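Chains adopt folds. We examine one example:
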Amino acid sequence: MNRLSSLAAASLVTALSLAGCAAMDSATGWETLIDGANGMENFTDLGGANWRAEGGAIVADRRPGNDSTFLVSKKSYKDFQIRVEFWVSDDANSGIYMRCAATRPMTDRTCYEANIFDRRPDPTYGTGAIVHLSPVSPMPKAGGKWNTFDITAKGTRMTVVLNGVQTAQADDGKLPSGPIALQYAGGVVKFRKVQIKPL
């Protein structure tokens, strides 16, 4: 193999190795984990929900048992801002898990959770809340429409903004860093954009 062919082959290998990585905008610092139907390669599937690319989003509407299932980021994050565009059915149970200390089992005690659960039996920590830390009142409804979460975690401070309105704020230092995860626990859940910016 001549030198030119060797260089071309090396370039191809490099390009292929980067193909599965999240797209980083070096000008703004935002890393895109999901963009439309693209991005499953940036996550590990835990629990076996039927996550798939469909209709310009990553979608799930079934799980094999009664336990929550997750798409867990392959990278860990400490201080960050995360933007998420999501659609859920009225009966959906989902959430954005952050700074997860453990992933087996993964719970709202081993991670911080910005909840998406309009029909939570106790609405105190329903949609827009940070479960166990920051209740929401009145609880907003996310079902049947596209929504945006803008969540910031810096040091011990966390804020959750749903559709432009701050719904939760907490100060807690138990979980300093870890992966993020997208939860599926019922109904229909769609994510069409997930971006994260380390701070």
